[in-house]
Amino acid sequence: MKTYNNQLNNKSSVIAAVLPGSILTTKNRGSIYLLLLLCITFLLQQANAQTPIVNVSIGNIAATTATSYNTSGAVGSSFSATNYNYTFGTATQAVNNQKKLNSLTMGQEIYSYVQNANSFVKIRRINNSIVTGKRTLLWLEKNTVAGGSANKVAVVPQYNDNMESVFDGNSLNQGTDNLFANQGDGNGNNNNIERLDVIFAGGVISTYNNKVGFALFERGADNEHDPFVIAAVTSIDQNGNPTGYANPVRVNTGNWGNIPNSALDYYVVRRNPLTEPNLRMSTSGKQNIGGVFITLKDLGIATGVKIYGYSVIGYDLPAGAIAANLVDYTNNTYFPTNTSSATSQGGIDLIALTGVLSAPEGIILPPTAENIQIPSMMNTSSLTAISPLDATAASGNIEFYTIVSVPSASQGLLHLCNNDNCNPILAGQVLAPAEINMLSFVPNPSYNGTVEFNYSATDSHQQVSNIATYTIPVTSTTQSVLPVNIVSFTGNINNKLVQLNWQTSQENNSSYFEVQRSSNGSNFESISTITAKGNIGTISSYQEKDDLFFYTGNIVYYRLKMVDTDGKFKFSKVLMIKLNNATSINILKAWPLPFSLQLTAAYSSDVSGEIKINLTNMNGSMVAASSAKVQKGYNNISINQAQTIPSGTYLLTITTNGKSETIKVVKQ
């Protein structure tokens, strides 16, 4: 492997050469030289902005599958004439089969691997004179115990010959060999890969651009890790293909860090999907792991600017390449198809860890849309109101929802009903937050089974959530109609106290009403039970109050469970109540609720400065106290003390400048 010096190290001589001599007068020379010195210093700082990784926390994941087969070594390698017994995953008898990155430490900051950034990997290939098609070329950690016998190839990770799938995860003991090398490897380990894209479909926004970034790791000798080029993806099309980039950043051998005690034995395996059913060994060895961390700031991305991922490119990208030259990976002016591993231009043995890492409070993640399943309904042709969609956003606001797919006509029709005006919903239709409470479904009378449709949510930063599934069970089983007729079900709120009222026109053998409340319209909990009149043929009125002192949402949902003396029951329509302005001010919010370990608070501060954070139990006793620095406006705060408190209900209070905000949190 060769070491490549950053080309910016020669900037001083280039700048001096183009300055006209007439400018360098005695009067101007001092100030110009000072300016040049500042420029050179800036350029050198930019050239070496990447941070070597030397301190990592590694965990393990046990394999769930076992794969074994017998075949020869890879065609064209020195092992091709020998047959081997190959074992992968649990077949190797390994307890922990995949090493994963938990976190890395740089300075005083701990950067954690973000699990829900909704990323996926695309490997961009161009056929060359040696490799065509979707060749799989991987290196995998060797199980030295299980592979101790002759003609035995024992691999620790479980079998996977899809390179995009291998790289779409958090794995430190597998990767690819010679990622961008098209020729020059004596064992035939060449690729036809010109660009590796890691795409975040919903985008990623940093609250501090120097606290969010990407960690890249490589298998190789210490201080000899291969250079590469990286660029942030600034826009994508509807299929997730990059359409815009920030300017490329060159990462050199000197930017890598050496991970202590990281040496591992490995096999290189490959497969031609047109001629080979399984992976075959082509070489083996033992090397260390190196790492480099590249922040959004390093990539030229400002705080608050959304990006859609990053691309890794071979080091033989021409030095003059700009952002616009990165989009078309088929242009061999910028993506040569004759890159040789012998020059280290494309020989990076990239480890299969992709995604984003963030320090606490450093990132605003895309929203999370929840899977929903509602109680079963009869397959009549009547229009039935269903529970609303449900999503949460770290930014605090869902801008709109998108119906990704709708049920087939043979199952029924999904409708949007505004009062008595109902219209079918189409795939791709966008719903405002208020409209998600207006959904109804008409089952097809001939259908009996499970109905599903999909949706996503977009927040105020235009970040898109995962795609969630909404499930509607439909049954044709004849059910007796309960002898309770609800005439009306209404409610109003005054100073966090909800007054619910309902009337029945007829009751026969009715037992009781269970009043249920929900924060999302899908998951309800019982809050009280009201005894029914039993048998009555006239109008009967009922009421119940609900104190929302500890409720933190902007909308609350209610429904009635009407139970008769035989235990049969049915539900009323869902009642939605919007809280008044005093209730709905979103100065302080916490998630997840309930939480088990990590608790994060979103706090909108009027000024920059220090805040006090207190956790008290319901008896008023303080169980944890801390402080934090905040900026004026929106802040994400990790409540680390919450990890050590026992399960229960607590009040979280944040105080600044004599002003306090309190919400209820629950630890499970």
Please write out the topology:
Blueprint: H1 11-17, H2 26-47, E1 51-53, E2 56-61, E3 66-72, E4 83-89, E5 98-106, E6 109-113, E7 119-125, E8 136-141, E9 152-155, H3 163-167, E10 170-175, E11 193-206, E12 212-220, E13 228-236, E14 242-245, E15 249-251, E16 257-258, E17 264-271, E18 280-295, E19 307-313, E20 351-353, E21 357-358, E22 363-364, E23 368-369, E24 372-373, E25 377-378, E26 384-385, E27 391-392, E28 398-405, E29 412-418, E30 421-424, E31 430-431, E32 439-443, E33 449-459, E34 468-475, E35 484-494, E36 497-507, E37 510-518, E38 524-531, E39 540-547, E40 555-564, E41 569-571, E42 575-578, H4 581-584, E43 588-591, E44 600-605, E45 609-617, E46 622-630, E47 633-638, E48 648-656, E49 659-667
Parallel strand pairs: 4-9, 24-34, 25-34
Antiparallel strand pairs: 1-18, 2-5, 3-4, 5-6, 6-21, 7-11, 8-10, 8-17, 10-20, 11-19, 11-22, 12-18, 12-21, 13-14, 13-15, 13-19, 16-18, 17-18, 23-27, 26-32, 28-31, 28-33, 29-30, 29-32, 33-34, 35-36, 36-39, 37-38, 37-40, 40-41, 40-42, 43-44, 44-47, 45-46, 45-48, 48-49
Helix pairs in contact: 1-2
- SS summary, helix count: 4
Largest sheet: 12 strands, antiparallel
- The count of DSSP E runs of length 2 or more, i.e. the number of strands, is 49
Unreliable sequence segments:
1-29, 31-48, 581-586
What does the average pLDDT come to? 83
What percent strand? over 45%
Instruction: Give the radius of gyration.
Output: 31 Å
Task: Give the total of domains.
Answer: 5
Indicate the structural class.
mainly beta
Shape estimate: globular
Helix content: under 10%
